[in-house]
Amino acid sequence: MKNFIVRAITGVFFVAAIVVSFLNPLAMVFLFALVTGMTIWEFCGLVNERPYVQVNQFISTVAGVYLFLAMAGHCSGFVNTDTVFIPYLITIIYLLIAELYLKAKDPINNWAYTMLPQLYIALPFSMLNVLAFPQAGSYSFVLPLSVFVFLWMNDTGAYLCGSLLGRHKLFPRVSPGKSWEGSIGGGLLVVGIAILVWYLLNTYVPEQANLNMWQWAGLGLTVVVFGTWGDLVESLLKRTLGIKDSGNILPGHGGMLDRFDSSLLAIPAAVVYLFTISLM
């Protein structure tokens, strides 16, 4: 009972912090730059426990945070030149060349584990800026916040339907607790929520209603499918590392990777989806 209360309180503060941050562009950029850094730091700490792996935790974290901030500046129009990405590229080149002088037993392992958090964590989080700044100089919280709302609703629907109806395992090798029934229930709930978002936008803030009903439903399904895959990817990562939680920074919820695993695939998938329908 005590663990449930702790988990509930942490969850409320977690959701509130994200929702409130999206109401202000500076708050959003600050919070998710912090989240990016904390998640990469956590990831590097985990993989550094493996034999013959030594990732530069500090430089990798700084590089990932810089990529997020550079993307924020570029997408918002605050920085009007693409040269803002050059320091990031120089850092990545440095991390590759450094292995020539470190005399590691397995430099390929170091290269792989150094690049992975940039692709798996820093790049997806930086894509939030593409959703938040649809045009240079304009900010909208609707799309990025919707992605997180869809993920939360999917988790809720999947848990309830899985607990009541779950019979067929979705991916027992990686996550034995997930069921097809739960995934379908979560997906149906998100589609309903997506249609509700479309209705509310059209009714109360039509200037924000840039997608039609079917496009909102498609966005919801995209987030559900890739969010589920994101969850499974992190489960596979933890099984490979032999750990239960990625950390303990969030009482009752584990680490940063545990809380943002679904979003790491859902965010870039949402960006690809939105770009795709804009070309149709």
Describe the structure concisely for a colleague.
The protein is mainly alpha-helical. The protein has helices at residues 2-21, 25-47, 57-76, 86-97, 99-102, 107-126, 128-132, 142-165, 180-204, 213-241, 256-260, 263-278, and strands at residues 169-171, 175-179.
Structure, described:
This protein is mostly helical. The protein is 72% helix and 3% strand. It has twelve helices and two strands, in the order ααααααααββαααα. The chain has helices spanning 2-21, 25-47, 57-76, 86-97, 99-102, 107-126, 128-132, 142-165, 180-204, 213-241, 256-260, 263-278, and strands spanning 169-171, 175-179. It has a two-stranded antiparallel sheet. A hairpin with a 3-residue loop joins strand 1 (169-171) and strand 2. Helix 3 runs parallel beside helix 6 (107-126). The mean pLDDT is 92.
Binned, the helix content reads over 70%
Query: Looking at the structure, what is the overall shape?
Result: globular
Helical segment count: 12
Arrangement of strands in the largest sheet:
1-2
Low-confidence stretches: none
Strand content: under 5%
Helix/strand class = mainly alpha
Distance between the termini: 51 Å
How much is the average pLDDT? Answer: 92
Gyration radius, rounded: 20 Å
Instruction: Give the total of beta strands.
Output: 2
Largest sheet composition: 2 strands, antiparallel
H-E string: HHHHHHHHEEHHHH
